[in-house]
């Protein structure tokens, strides 16, 4: 197994387990087992569980950047914002089962003494992207609309997870689409 491959397997395992179980409920042994590597190998790539958390947050941020950059294929800000809502709906099964990967991790880390900048960067990036899109439509209300849409998406994820209900995500995404039409017409 190559060095890059081992590191990526560890990172993927940690990302999955932190999302499904939470950072604190996931042990280094759990990650090693899921990655199919010896526990000692983790220390070669990541000095601590905290450095692994940083790498997971950085990886999630890169994935988010790539996803949102892909929305540039849509012609208008409204279409790009609609695609954002579609992204939430497309993940409804995971949201119902595990909550929002960004919001859950950010909330969990926010209650500790661990540095928050890495997990906060995910929500900051999302909020700034939304703000930029709304700014192209209505600069005066862009910040408020960006915060509202992110809050709706995060609230939807929280409720869906709490009730383990995919249909709740579908209904709330329909409501988000309707809200978007009202404020952009």
From TrEMBL:
The keyword Transcription applies. Keywords: DNA-binding, Transcription, Transcription regulation. Gene3D superfamilies: Tetracycline Repressor, domain 2. Residues 4-64 form the HTH tetR-type domain. The keyword Ligase does not apply. PANTHER family: TRANSCRIPTIONAL REGULATORY PROTEIN (PTHR47506). This is TetR family transcriptional regulator. The lineage of its organism: Bacteria, Pseudomonadati, Pseudomonadota, Gammaproteobacteria, Cellvibrionales.
